[in-house]
Specification:
Elements (H helix, E strand, L loop, with lengths): L18 H22 L21 E5 L5 E3 L2 E3 L2 H12 L7 E5 L5 H14 L4 E3 L6
Parallel strand pairs: 1-4, 4-5
Antiparallel strand pairs: 1-2, 2-3
């Protein structure tokens, strides 16, 4: 309650002073902002590190390339479509040991073209599939 000094009216002030409430809320907000990051990162975890292993190209590996336009090449031979690739991959799938298929997709090619190649290789039953990328400088 507040009193008015110097006035003859003895009216009671009915307004609530919200300044202390705002001060308390700001202090609580600052406390929460400081303590939450400490609580969330308190558990020590060894996260996996990025590693780029140099892959050796063996003569028995099958290399499939996809150019910018989406054309498919088996080694250097152009392939008509993914069904033709599937029929050729069935021959490699029965070999013992099964060769690894390495897909070289152009960075600017459509992902659908590379996806069709991957799907044809998987349908043929080849389990070892890898993507060839350029190492970072």
């Amino acid at each position: 309650m507040a009193m008015n000094v110097g006035e003859a009216d003895d009216e009671i002030m009915s307004e609530i002073n919200t300044t202390p409430l705002v001060d308390v809320m700001l202090v609580l907000l600052i406390i929460f902002l400081i303590t939450i990051p400490v609580v969330t990162t308190s558990i020590k975890v060894d996260l996996p590190k990025e590693s780029n292993l140099v892959r050796e190209t063996k003569p028995e590996n099958v290399i499939i390339s996809v150019d910018v336009k989406g054309k498919i090449f088996l080694y250097d031979t152009p392939i008509k479509n993914s069904d033709d690739l599937f029929n050729r991959m069935k021959k490699f799938a029965v070999a013992k040991p099964q060769p690894e298929v390495q897909i070289r997709g152009d960075g600017k090619s459509d992902f659908e073209s590379v996806g069709r190649v991957l799907y044809a290789v998987q349908r043929a039953g080849i389990t070892k599939v890898g993507f060839i990328t350029e190492p970072q400088p």
